[in-house]
Amino acid sequence: IMDPYVPPEGDARLTSLSKDGVKQQMQKLRQTAASQLAWNLCGGKSGICVGGKMEFVWEEKVEFLWGKVGICVGGSFNKQKLHSLVTEHCYPDMVRGNRYKTIRWRFVESLEPPRVVHVRCESILNRGNLYGQVTVRMHSRQILAIYDRFGRLMYGGEEIPKDVLEYVVFERYLVNPYGTWRMHGKIIPEWAPPKDPIIKTVMIPGPAPDPSQEHE
């Protein structure tokens, strides 16, 4: 992730009337200006205009793409489909440790509209090889449950939804006119609360063998 976005501490909990909330608003203005400049440098090849009408249309598409990634991982796993939705950098993180597990994921509702908070464009190897990265703040309510290969719950649950605040990075190879935006990673702030621990499951021991019933 080029020039990672630094989420403000207390995001989604501070009001715009508090002292820290005012500081966040000022920081947001500076970041928006830098993001607009970065997007102007890359020629606006994706149709995003930070702070304009095109931004909201693009954010709806990103939310749809993000939901498709969750369904692909938490539903019927499709390797080829997932490769078309995430980058090569993100794919190992999406599938690592998922073998022999059952993942149930469901999007419940969006608590706040997704918002573009960071835009960067840089050249790789040569000046004409442009890549664009956009960080989108997504505040939603989700359901996630992970079961082991024996069907026992390891993480989360399917009954109680949880509020999730995420900063998702999407990337596109801007030189290719037919290129699409794909999920590239997530930014986890240092002040984020720790995740719930994984419930470790063990094999249930069987009955002790009876020596009198042993046979060759």
Automatic annotation (TrEMBL):
SUPFAM superfamilies: NTF2-like. Keywords: Mitochondrion, Ribonucleoprotein, Ribosomal protein, Transit peptide. Pfam families: Tim44. The keyword Transit peptide applies. Residues 50-188 form the Tim44-like domain. It comes from the Eukaryota. InterPro entries: mtLSU_mL45, NTF2-like_dom_sf, Tim44-like_dom. This is Large ribosomal subunit protein mL45. It comes from Hypocryptadius cinnamomeus. Belongs to the mitochondrion-specific ribosomal protein mL45 family. It is found in: Mitochondrion. The keyword Transit peptide applies. One of its GO terms (cellular component) is ribonucleoprotein complex. Component of the mitochondrial large ribosomal subunit (mt-LSU). Within the mitochondrial ribosomes, required to direct the nascent polypeptide toward the tunnel exit and position the exit at a distance from the membrane surface.
